[in-house]
Design a protein that fits this description.
The protein is mainly alpha-helical and 527 residues long. It has 26 helices and 5 strands. It has helices at 2-8, 12-20, 25-44, 53-68, 81-93, 96-122, 125-137, 139-146, 151-165, 173-189, 198-206, 213-230, 232-242, 251-260, 266-273, 280-286, 288-310, 313-327, 338-352, 367-379, 384-388, 391-416, 423-434, 450-454, 468-477, 487-490; strands at 443-446, 458-461, 482-485, 509-515, 520-525. Strands 2-1-3-5-4 form a 5-stranded mixed sheet. Strand 1 (443-446), helix 24 (450-454) and strand 2 (458-461) form a beta-alpha-beta unit. It is globular and about 85 Å long.
């Protein structure tokens, strides 16, 4: 009798499988991620870093303020959706930096939830479970969850577009229009959201809905119409103000990638050479051979950077293995399915990134794709390796990937989450206590916009100058009230370094506060 009772008890594998198949598991992981990241961010992320959050203080906060006050700026490189969201949400919290962090973490949680639901539909609950674990512990994903910027909200919008496009096996016009709407919003956030027009290729040629050519063309046009309609008012505004419905200057980033990278400093290119290009055609026309060779050369370089820097070689090696096993089946295998469409969507995005300089944050959207490839050989029944390796060994290997990724993430982010200029907290406290409101400045010059944000002033970029007298003249010419310097900022403006440790008070400047621990100084410009 006892033996019979023991036989009826579920095995450990059965218990684990039942846990993984729990309907709301993805939601639970997303909520847990949100809570943990929010607590950690509030405790340690007090000041923005000198990386991606530079754009937040430099561009997004001023644009959000203008939008709330009724003025709409046209950014040369991005659409207005993120500043709109930032401005509206900030009406609740009245702290732009905190608002940016909350938007990032919330968006990341939604990405995890949608990724789980999509991968579960396309593959299996087991693959979805391991993929979201690799996603939510990925060091780069975590970093840009708590960072204030467009990365995670763009990732969320793209993930939503993918989810609704691939949600059903049968054609559903409502889902198609919703997917196009999210695609349009992603374009309004970052113009590389245009890659989602690749859905048209999937409708026409993958055709997993199995519909006639007439219907394929009809629904392709419907998708494009809904996509463009989402940002049509912005396009018309750009047409009126700038003369182009699709106005942006991202071709200048492409020009630097092809002709400037490795030969000229970033600042020098933007100050002295970027005006030489007025369109993508101009960029290509300079040297078509070099242009296309550079782009093709980025295929291997970007993929290796993704495997090494984005995923980590301990996952990247299995991603490469997953690609090998994916290609092993004979060509007669049925490719007209949603999985093929999913793979192609990610390949389209990877291909678009070949045009610009590499940054692992640009590839955030590809993490689930790479994770699927890494997990499948050990979990997917249709892949031959699964039949040759015991399932328990496969689970153990994938679990080991997750543990190593989590360990790397904690080590990686423990220093980066508090890497911003800590002197700004002390500087802000001193300024608010010692400078009366009526005596506070309006314009602050620095290499980065962080100090201006914390002191409530307009930011002015440190001018290029060959002498101290020219520095002072430029500051006065632009009505600058304060000058902020620290070793990190003067690293890119060496002509300012003597002002960090002057032998005597520089003429025309008055030292307001010098924070010795951080070697930073705030000067008041004397008129």
């Amino acid at each position: 009798m006892i033996d019979q009772d023991l036989a009826k008890q579920p095995s450990l594998q059965e218990i684990f499988t039942k846990f993984v198949e729990y309907r709301y598991l993805g939601l639970a992981i997303a909520i847990l991620y949100f809570v943990i990241l929010l607590i950690v961010s509030l405790l340690f992320h007090k000041v923005g870093d000198y990386g991606v959050e530079t754009d937040f203080f430099w561009t997004y906060v001023p644009e959000a303020k203008n939008i709330i006050s009724g003025s709409l700026m046209i950014d040369n490189f991005r659409g207005p959706f993120y500043p709109m969201v930032l401005g509206i949400v900030n009406l609740v919290f009245d702290n732009y930096f905190l608002t940016g962090i909350l938007i990032g973490i919330s968006s990341a949680a939604v990405v995890i939830f949608l990724t789980y639901k999509l991968i579960r539909k396309l593959f299996s609950p087991m693959i979805a479970f391991f993929v979201v674990l690799l996603l939510s512990t990925n060091p780069i994903f975590v970093q840009y969850s708590y960072s204030a910027g467009t990365d995670m909200i763009f990732n969320m919008l793209v993930s939503a577009a993918l989810y609704y496009f691939f949600k059903e096996k049968e054609l559903n016009c409502q889902n198609l229009i919703i997917a196009a709407g999210f695609a349009g919003l992603s374009y309004l956030t970052r113009y590389n959201g245009v890659f989602l027009l690749g859905f048209v290729f999937i409708i026409l040629f993958v055709n997993y809905w199995n519909i006639s050519w007439l219907k394929r063309i009809k629904y392709s046009l419907l998708f494009v119409f809904a996509f463009v309609l989402t940002f049509a008012s912005w396009g018309i505004y750009c047409l009126v103000k700038k003369g182009s419905f699709f106005y942006n200057e991202n071709f200048k980033n492409i020009a630097y990638e092809v002709y400037g990278k490795g030969t000229i400093a970033w600042d020098q290119f933007w100050f002295e050479h970027s005006s030489n290009y007025s369109s993508l055609f101009d960029v290509i026309a300079v040297n078509p051979f070099k242009f296309f060779v550079t782009i093709l050369g980025n295929v291997g370089g970007n993929f290796w950077a993704d495997m090494n820097g984005l995923m980590g070689l301990y996952v990247g090696a299995f991603t490469i293995l997953g690609i090998v096993f994916l290609l092993l089946p004979k060509p007669r295998i049925n490719w007209r399915n949603r999985v093929t469409g999913y793979y192609l969507s990610n390949i389209f995005f990877f291909s678009l990134l070949l045009l610009v300089f590499y940054s692992n944050r640009f590839s955030l959207f590809l993490i689930p794709f790479y994770a699927v490839l890494a997990v499948q050989p050990f979990v997917a029944e249709r892949i031959v390796l699964h039949r040759k390796v015991p399932i328990s060994v496969g689970y153990a290997l994938v679990a080991l990937m997750v543990v190593i990724t989590l360990s790397k993430s904690i080590s990686f982010n423990s220093s980066r989450i508090s890497s911003g200029p800590k002197d700004l907290i002390e500087l802000q406290d001193w300024y608010n206590k010692n400078i009366l409101p009526e005596n506070r400045g309006k314009i602050l010059a620095a290499r980065k916009p962080h100090a201006a944000y914390h002191l409530g002033m307009q930011f002015h970029l440190l001018p290029l100058a060959d002498s101290y007298s020219e520095i002072l003249n430029q500051l006065k010419k632009h009505n600058v009230d304060y000058l902020y310097l620290n070793p990190t900022e003067t690293g890119l403006r060496r002509e300012y370094q003597p002002l960090l440790y002057p032998e005597k008070e520089p003429p025309g400047l008055k030292t307001e506060i010098r924070i010795k621990k951080q070697s930073s100084v705030l000067y008041k410009v004397v008129y």
